[in-house]
Amino acid sequence: MxxxxxxxxxxxxxxxxxxQVNRSLAEKALPGDxxxxxxxxxxxxxxxxxxxxxxxxxxxxxxxxxxxxx
Length: 70
What we know:
Helix content is 64%, strand content 0%. It is built from 2 helices and no strands. It has helices at 3-29, 32-49. The longest helix is centred in the N-terminal third of the chain and has 27 residues, at 3-29.
């Protein structure tokens, strides 16, 4: 394995680890209800970008969001 190949592998591993840390921090930074709204807005934006213009659907809260366990 050449030095460049080794360096590329280490850099990729570092990027993956940095991404994991970033996701973990973001997960901890957002309260549960905010996380739900961000997720909902993200899905709506993706649907809009995909050209979907169907009716606005009613959001039904899941048991998880309300703090109930199954």
